[in-house]
Structure formats: structure tokens, C-alpha cells
Design brief:
Layout: E1 16-19, E2 24-27, H1 33-43, E3 53-55, H2 58-64, E4 65-66, H3 71-78, E5 83-89, E6 104-108, E7 122-123, E8 125-126, H4 138-145, E9 150-151, E10 165-168, E11 175-176
Parallel strand pairs: 1-9, 3-6, 5-10
Antiparallel strand pairs: 1-2, 2-8, 3-7, 4-5, 5-6, 10-11
Length: 178
């Protein structure tokens, strides 16, 4: 889905449901405080529970986070699992109550047709109400959220089971958290 031939997926004031390499996710632009509030309300997510962010590629990641020089090589060695890495944010990342100020979870877009839509990082939280099972099908996401979210077009059913491994790159040595 080239960005030039379709409308933007991630716009201010809208929560978008999109496929990832783990489950359906809910995306809100990182520079949209009202959208972030809407997201937490839709999910009934406690405000103290932070969300991770999805970026387009390593270039965009380096714009918003302090990236260790060997991260791309490390990522390639660990890419047999979906990955989330905790990094120190740069001042270019908007501050928010939705993620900590000292370290933020980032994922690099695993769905090539979505990557052009990531003009800024978007939230990468699972498409389910807090405490409920993740949505692996569009039907399951619609059952949870109905018309309260926008749905990325042409989305496949996903295979249940993959979870993102979380690694903290703000510690030495790097620590696996999940």
C-alpha cells in the first residue's frame, strides 16, 4: 500500500488498528495527546502502564532515540523473534505521560506496506481492552472496538502465538525483560 496512492493511516485525532508481526495493534501518532488519551480510554488501560512506539526504520529510530552503534547488527542477529527495544529518547520525541522520559520501548515496522505511513512514531500497543486476549483477526478487533477506531485496509488474519521479546538497551549488559 504505497502512501502516495492511499489516504494517511495515522492522522491526528484517530486511533488506527493495524497488523503487526505479533497481533493487531492500535496506533496513534506520538505527537497527538488527545489521540493518546482516546487510546487509553478505548483500551481501559491504566495511565501508569506505558506504551511502546513503532517506527518506520532505523533512520527514523535514530531520530527519536539514542541508538547504540551496534543495534542494527544486534537486531539482525535477534530478528527471528518480534523485537521491542528500550532506548533513551532524544529531545525530538515528544514528551508524554504515555511513555517514560528515561527509556522508551521501540519496535521497527515489520509490515512493509505500513512503513510509508509512519511519518512519526505511532503507538504499538495490542488491539484489545486491557486484560483481554489480543486480536489476531480483523473480526476480533472489530468485536472489541467497533466503529471507535479506523481499520487499516486489506489486513490479513494473523497467527496467534508470537510475542515481542523486550530487550533493555539502556543497561550494560543488555537485559532481556520478556
Amino acid at each position: 500500500m504505497p502512501a502516495a496512492s492511499s489516504s494517511p493511516l495515522f492522522v491526528h485525532g484517530r486511533v488506527t488498528c493495524y497488523p503487526t508481526d505479533t497481533a493487531y495493534g492500535l496506533g496513534v501518532r506520538c505527537d497527538d495527546p488527545a489521540g493518546l488519551q482516546q487510546l487509553f480510554t478505548l483500551k481501559s488501560r491504566p495511565l501508569h502502564k506505558p506504551v511502546s512506539l513503532m517506527v518506520r526504520d532505523f533512520t527514523q529510530l535514530a531520530h527519536y532515540a539514542h541508538v547504540p552503534g551496534d543495534l542494527a547488527q544486534w537486531w539482525a542477529a535477534h530478528a527471528h523473534h518480534p523485537l521491542t527495544v528500550l532506548l533513551r529518547p532524544r529531545p525530538t520525541l515528544p514528551t508524554s505521560w504515555a511513555w517514560p522520559s528515561d527509556r522508551v520501548g521501540f519496535r521497527v515496522c515489520p509490515v512493509p506496506r505500513l512503513c510509508p505511513h509512519l511519518t512519526v512514531p505511532v503507538t504499538a500497543t495490542s488491539a484489545n481492552p486491557s486484560g483481554q486476549p489480543p486480536a489476531y483477526t480483523l473480526a476480533a478487533a472489530r468485536a472489541y472496538f467497533g466503529d471507535h477506531v479506523h481499520y487499516a485496509p486489506h489486513t490479513p488474519d494473523l497467527t496467534a502465538g508470537a510475542i515481542s521479546h523486550i530487550y533493555d538497551h539502556t543497561t550494560h549488559p543488555v537485559t532481556r525483560l520478556r
